[in-house]
Amino acid sequence: MKTYYIYADMPSYRRDFFTGLSKMLKNSGFDLEVLHGMPTDKKIVVQDDSCDYEKRTFLSQVKKIGPLKFTNIKQLFEYVKRKCPDAIVISYMSTNLSMLKVVLYCIIKKIPYATWRCGYNRPDYTSSAAKLRQIIIGFVEKKASLNICYGSYYKNALVDKGIPHEKIIIAQNTINVEKILEENKNHKKIFSVQTKILFVGALIKGKLLKSSIDAVKMLIDEGFDVCFDIVGGGEMLEELKQYSISLNLDGKINMVGPKYGEEVKNFFRNADVFLLAGTGGLAVNQAMAYGLPIISTNADGTVCDLIDGNGYYMDKFGDTEIQYQCLGKFIALSNEEKVRMSEKSKQIIGTKATLENMINKHREACVRLLSANE
After folding, report:
1. Using an 8 Å Cβ cutoff, are 255 and 237 in contact?
2. Exposed site from 41, 108, 208, 307, fewest CB < 10 Å?
């Protein structure tokens, strides 16, 4: 029996997950194939070109219907229809037309499927688009055999919609934090006089980085010795560079562009605190595995589970004043308190959001779906 995972594209950070899940399912007598499109937006995300698990790539195209923008993964539906899988797990996106066609096909053919989502609602949608989006998502969730959630935030939202608890699995959303923890088990965080603030991720509007730059400027204007490294590439890179220059923050705000491998590891190792004002999530897991205290919004819906009294949880996206207050509180801590926060970050991520746990939860979901189709 075979499960198909459907994903919008295939970022390299999913390689360890799908490799591990494929092996675990194979050991249980099941097969896995990942079907995915290609990036269509302006985010710079490295794609997985490995052959460590079975996957098939399809071309993606963007279509506009009036004021709405949709994505279509070409030939995806035709491939699924031809293969008639035993079960499907779909990282569902309401703006992806081919994913909706696959869901409808599953419903008609009585193929058990699971959604796999963070549950985050984008604030930049127009009211009409948001309403349509929620109607479609609600339909897809209610017809699903299972809904796999990133965290408790989305689970609670599903329960509020009337989805039974037994149809919900919290799998977290993570990377191979075990590898990071092992590689850095002898590395102890040393906090310097200058507070080094870090952001790592795609430089898109949803990250709300101008609000973070403004918060850092407020600290600098008050005489605090801080710097802010912004690591990543994307559509906002040049705009953010010019914004920093306009505020006379050259040398304090460092727009370093995309970094990979050992280079990005050193940014995590050398930073004092990680700041996330907008959307995202996996970089938080990565930062915690390196022992960084966290100042973050709920991001992709998992941070509320990970802060756990250690770090600073911001209940508003892109709020400069809240970021300024949280950074100020962190800076005021003693070195001993910061070290304790660092160790606690590693302990939390190594307990609550391991890759092993995520793979086990997805295996559970796949087995339940396949059992329903026997």
Report:
1. yes
2. 108
User: pTM above the 0.70 mark?
Assistant: yes
pLDDT of residue 125: 54
pLDDT 10s digits, 307-343: 888 899 999 999 999 999 999 999 999 999 999 999 9
Q: How far apart are CA 169 and CA 148, in angstroms?
A: 5
178-352: CATH superfamily: Glycogen Phosphorylase B; (3.40.50.2000)
What pLDDT is recorded for position 116? 96
Q: How confident is the model at residue 43, as a pLDDT? A: 67
Encoded tokens for 302: 């998992």
* pLDDT above 70: residue 80: yes
The span from the CA of 58 to the CA of 229, in Å, is 36
Please determine whether the domains at 2-174+354-372 and 178-352 fall in the same fold group of CATH. yes
**C-beta neighbour count of 266 within 10 angstroms:** 11
Q: Report CA-CA distances (Å) from 362 to 1, 77, 125, 173, 191.
A: 16, 23, 30, 11, 38
251: left (phi over 0), alpha (psi -120 to 50) or beta: left
Q: Any idea where the domains of the chain sit in the sequence?
A: 2-174+354-372, 178-352
Nearest to 177 by CA among 362, 363, 356: 356
Q: Give 2-174+354-372's CATH code, choosing from 2.60.120.10, 2.30.140.10, 3.30.420.270, 3.40.50.2000.
A: 3.40.50.2000
Give residue 146's pLDDT: 97
